[in-house]
Specification:
The protein folds into three domains: about 350 residues, TIM Barrel (Alpha-Beta Barrel), CATH 3.20.20.70; about 150 residues, NAD(P)-binding Rossmann-like Domain (Rossmann fold); about 130 residues, FAD/NAD(P)-binding domain (3-Layer(bba) Sandwich). Helix 13 packs parallel to helix 15 and helix 13 runs parallel beside helix 22. The radius of gyration is 27 Å and the shape is globular. By secondary structure, the chain is of the alpha/beta class.
Length: about 700
């Protein structure tokens, strides 16, 4: 197949002096949870994106000096020449596939605590640090004097020269998200100086201007020097307004070689699909592009090439930036170029990828289970090794794990039978995608069903609930149990290890609500002991349908784990705006006579609240009855030609949808004549080199 001519504009070259991007498709800097700890894994991951057809592939933010290090976050470093070899590896693997390599340098000023280096943070004024981890660290930055400013200016071109030595083609000045020192100097809110670097906009922009000039003088003969700049402060609205942003761009319009526009803070720039549609930042691009003759790149979680074409033709951007969409599908450009749009894995906007940065663990993706596994497990988003036998595999359950397992086994060439109890494929994805704000999640199901439909070696049983005897009659040599999970009805979970006493009050679970059951009363107590998204979503659902909801959580805030996906603040704001009563810190102890007794986890003090019905969001139980029944019949396996039965994903231990998809891919990747025992599967690690002994 060939490219549709309407997408030709995306594959035009764009000069970014003194280099040229071969296409308009540009991977902007994004974090990954690997950084300096896993440098080879990081390099291989970036290389795969270049292989997928992105014209420019950038690093995450790269630390320039120990006085601006981001511990506990794990980012790349160019502190000194010892960091160059790791950077060389990144640039080389990007260049191997014809892409330009970009390095985003940044000094984080007042947004980091320097826990590793123990250096005192610096910034435009003396204030408590505002850590990117959202921690309230007992650290303050000191006000920079002129000598400090000259020193910081010296560090950036020094790091830029290291980046050039490593082979990078673009070397950024990062001034975005209010996390970087130049952005902090730009902010009216953070900069109260009365010297040449404070007060008027011309003074507040001085450090940024000087840094761009310093970088251009250092590496501009061979490298483009982009600047990453916020077009709006959506966190406080007080750092700069729209008119001032346009004045700022006018003051530096001809200095950088490219403008990378985005929104401050990061949680607004990378809002999840639950709270923002694709292209939600376009209104902030309509003026800035016209203020400079230099090329502009910006993101919008665009997964549709038609939307990409639109924003180019409308003059909003010259290059289409992407982070989450190419995490979901690194080969999106190649698929557009080859006319294979139905093969694109569209980002669902859940931001589980961001959680890797906040949890200091390798990046992961719900749609793309190979993300972060390119080196340590040798997975590739498009390729998988061929089958080693003709063994037939039965996959029971067509939820996210079963669909991915069947798809990947089918791609390897194995004959597969996929059996699903329902006549609708997708399992929990279908049910959760029907909840408020989660509609984009159905893409997990849709992509895999579309791929499975193309494979003649995959046989599909719909609306077939197989028992153990029927499984053995299928004639499969290996059986995968991907039957999912169900929510507990007894309240056992993180807080309670024995059932909660409930007398006379109706109890519902998330499964009940997703199946269409509703409480008959008006006052609902929802006990969220899960702490991820489902409790908040169900509270929203119930309020929309006319109920009054008390959301009870032992945490200090609802849906607290969503801090790792940068959603928590949006969730709490929405629940409060909808009138949900948030009861933080108590545990649900018992319910009797339509009254729920709550107990503070700190003081033990109790209070009672009305409860016409109770919704328990606590823990889940694997739906593993079929796996158990088959193991009981193990003596009959040989006669049926059955060699193994393996439970995966939620049927083994409940977790996220991303983990379910990963488990499905993992079984298919590691399957040969029989699955490798779970605890014995290899994992390729990177180890630090030892320094000379003192």
């Amino acid at each position: 197949m060939t490219r549709d001519p309407r997408y030709d504009i995306l594959f035009e070259p764009v000069p970014i002096e003194p280099v040229v991007a071969r296409y308009r498709l540009y991977q902007v800097p994004h974090c990954n949870g690997m950084g300096h700890r896993d440098p080879t894994a990081l390099a291989v991951m970036r290389g795969v994106k270049a292989e997928g057809g992105w014209a420019v592939v950038c690093t995450e933010q790269v630390e320039v000096h120990p006085i601006s290090e981001m511990t506990p976050l794990v980012e790349m470093r160019l502190w000194d020449d010892a960091d160059i070899p790791a950077a060389v590896c990144v640039a080389e693997l990007i260049h191997r596939h014809g892409a330009l390599a970009g390095c985003e340098l940044g000094h984080n000023g007042m947004s980091v605590s320097n826990f590793y280096s123990r250096e005192v943070p610096v910034g435009p004024r003396c204030l408590p640090i505002s850590a990117v981890t959202s921690a309230v660290d007992p650290v303050q930055a000191r006000r920079m004097d002129k000598d400090d400013i000259r020193t910081v200016r010296r560090w950036h071109p020094a790091a830029a020269l290291r980046a050039r030595t490593a082979g990078f083609d673009l070397v950024y000045v990062n001034s975005g998200l209010l996390q970087c020192i130049t952005d902090q100097f730009l902010s009216r809110l953070l900069n109260d100086r009365i010297d040449d670097y404070g007060g008027s906009l011309e003074n507040r922009v001085r450090l940024l201007r000087e840094m761009i000039e310093d970088m251009k003088n250092a590496v501009g003969d061979r490298c483009a020097v982009p600047v990453r700049l916020s077009t709006a402060d959506l966190t406080t609205g007080l750092s700069f307004d729209r008119a001032e942003v346009e004045d700022l761009i006018g003051l530096i319009a001809d200095l950088p070689d490219l403008f990378d526009f985005h929104l401050a803070g990061w949680e607004y720039d990378s809002r999840t699909s639950r709270f923002a549609d694709e292209g939600h930042g376009e209104e902030f691009l309509k003026g800035p592009k016209q203020l400079t003759s230099k090329p502009v790149v910006a993101v919008g979680r665009y997964t549709s090439p038609d939307a990409m074409v639109r924003i180019v033709r409308q003059g909003l951007v010259d290059l289409v930036g992407a982070a989450r969409p190419l995490i979901a599908d690194p080969f999106l450009p190649r698929k557009v170029e080859e006319g294979r749009l139905d093969d694109v894995r569209e980002c669902i906007g859940c931001s589980i990828c961001v959680s890797g940065d906040y949890t200091m663990s390798p990046i992961r993706c719900t749609q793309n289970p190979s993300m972060g596994e390119e080196l340590r497990r040798g997975w590739h988003p498009e390729r998988i090794r061929p089958k080693t036998s003709g063994a037939r595999v039965l996959v029971v359950g067509a939820g996210p794990a079963g669909l991915e397992c069947a798809r990947a086994l089918g791609q390897r060439g194995y004959p597969v039978v996929l059996a699903e109890t329902s006549d609708v494929l997708g399992g929990r994805v279908v049910r959760e995608a029907a909840l408020p704000g989660l509609g984009a999640w159905i893409r997990v199901r849709d992509h895999r069903v579309l791929q499975i439909d193309k494979m003649p070696n995959i046989e599909l049983y719909r609306a077939r609930r197989l028992d153990a005897a029927e499984v053995q009659e299928v004639g499969a040599a290996h059986v995968v149990i991907a039957t999912g999970t169900r929510w507990r009805r007894d309240g056992i979970g993180r807080r309670h290890f024995t059932p909660i006493s409930v007398q006379g009050t109706p109890v519902l679970t998330p499964d009940d609500l997703m199946d269409g059951s509703r409480p008959s009363g008006r006052r609902i107590v929802l006990f969220d002991d899960d702490h991820y998204y489902i409790g908040g979503v169900l509270a929203e659902l119930l309020v929309k349908e006319g109920h009054e909801v008390d959301l009870v959580t032992t945490a200090s805030e609802p849906s607290t784990w969503t801090r790792n996906t940068m959603e928590q603040g949006f969730i709490q704001a929405r629940l409060l705006e909808m009138g949900v009563t948030l009861r933080t810190h108590p545990s649900l102890e018992r319910v009797e006579q339509d009254m729920a007794t709550l107990r503070c986890v700190f003081t033990g003090c109790e209070e009672r609240v009305p409860a016409d019905a109770l919704v328990l969001v606590t823990a889940r139980i694997p739906d593993d009855d079929l796996a158990h029944d088959l193991r009981v019949r193990q003596a009959d396996w040989a006669a049926a030609g059955l060699h193994s039965v393996t439970a995966i994903a939620d049927a083994l231990a409940p977790a996220t949808i991303a983990h379910a998809v990963y488990e499905g891919r993992r079984y298919a990747e590691e399957f040969d004549d029989g699955p490798v025992p779970t605890l014995d599967r290899p994992l390729r690690r990177e180890l630090p080199a030892l320094s000379p002994m003192p």
